[in-house]
Amino acid sequence: MKHYIKLLFNDRFRKVFFLFLYSGLQFWWLGKIKKFISTEASNRRYKELYQEQAVKFTNTAIELQGLLIKLGQFFSSRVDILPKEYTDELSKLQDAVQPVDAKLIRIRMETELGTSIDNVFSEFSEQAIAAASLGQVHKARLKNGQEVAVKVLRPGIEEIIAIDLQTLRIIIAVLKRFTKFAQSVDLDDVNQEFHETINDELDYVKEGKSAEQFQANFADEPRIYVPKIYWDYTTEKLLVLEYIDGVKITDLYAVKEFNIASDLAETIFSSYLKQVLVHGFFHADPHPGNLLVTKEGTLVFIDFGMMGYVQKNMKESMVKLVTAVFKRDAGAVVEALDHVGFLRPNADKNVLIKSIKILLNNVFGDMENNVKNIDLNELAIEVRELMYSQPFQIPARTTFLGKALITLAGICRGLDENFDAIKVSTPYISELLPGMEGSPGNDSGSNSNRAFLFDQAKTIALDVIAIPEKLNRMIDGLETGELRFHPSKTFEQNMLEHQSEIASRVIRTIITAGVGVIGAILYNGDAQQLGSILMVVSGFTGLGLFFGRSSNKQGRRKRPRFHP
């Protein structure tokens, strides 16, 4: 208890905690009053509130820096948790970090090196060439003449992170205790993933080892390069690595001047397929600042603080998912997503299958004719809407994979508007199973591949053989009444709401007509004034019913297409 009381006197804690508390109270109040307003007005107010809160969080994060920046960047990829208004605004935090004063950086470096900077470097630029939420990078030159990039952890960031992590833990405890948010989102899982990611980024020794592992994975690929790590000067808070003179991969003018844009798109895309499907170890933060291109056309990966892992069972599930998508088998897609852990426990699979069918038909309808006709922007919109409107969750360890692949698709299409992802993907998908058992092309890999194909063929054959028996059971069940068709829970709920709305409207119409009739009788009698008032009230009520019906029709037409 004393610890929490002490936190209350911390200005940073109070700002962050009450920011979340106030946001929660806004949602609570809107939830109380939405029953008194139309559905369309309620939806509009929620969107306005999302936008208002996202802007407020972004401004607070820019003010306080530290872990709030990283938290915003993290949640900008959680389209399964937050609506578009939040994620779009939070994405602005990617470039919202100001560098720390060079004097403080010098003190930190000399503490880590155990000596003066001048004893290690012949040159050191006090102007940061890159700044992030946890550290920043300066250019320097070693005594032997080698140009290096020096990555330094921000002074005092450890204390800030400690406070922010405690604040986040308290906020999650409040959400679990007083809201229903935890029923649809595994908050402990999200917190654990975020906590582990931050700890990894605070350890530059681990980052250096990740860089060397990544370099070893691509040792036979001359088009990909990883800067050398200088371990003699590297500590947990200081990383010294080879400086690479290159341009950002999104510097299209320079890249196209090198006349390598098309080859570069294929190189980066195929490298990620190999990272995910073969190595199971991938660079989880491929934003333009972490991907450089040399004049020779070499793709350089830098910043290995955020790395992702894909386990063997996840690879197998990915194969099943991809197969189901290309077969447009919505049921198999849903089962594969459930197996991987992308569905929440309360997911209505029947409704979800219908939604997946809509997605597949809308986006991949003309795949057989021309793969290039697929609109990636339309695909992103469809997937985003589906993710947020249906009971999806992004399992731990896969959040950054999805974010990386989305970023990657945008970069490749920017480099080459005719980029054919399917053509590039084909050989790497075929190498998936060999890569799981050993290096691609070895005997054990070939055996594994054949075994996998045999298992798939056996499963399909057994399913085909079982079809007549399943049909007989279904027909018998229908005849005896043991088998009945039940609509989905969502369909039932919508039907009950619609019936309730009709009944309520009928009752109000009868009452309105009755008031009008009574008013007319009184007007023709001795109470003309009262009769006039009742007829006016009846008229306005009738107009309200009419326009309310029109408003509800518009609201139904504007309902998200993934809500049946």
From TrEMBL:
The chain crosses the membrane at residues 12-30, 529-548. GO terms for molecular function: ATP binding; protein kinase activity. Keywords: Membrane, Transmembrane, Transmembrane helix. Residues 123-453 form the Protein kinase domain. PANTHER family: CHAPERONE-ACTIVITY OF BC1 COMPLEX CABC1 -RELATED, PROTEIN ACTIVITY OF BC1 COMPLEX KINASE 7, CHLOROPLASTIC. Belongs to the protein kinase superfamily. ADCK protein kinase family. This is Protein kinase domain-containing protein. It comes from Desulfuribacillus stibiiarsenatis.
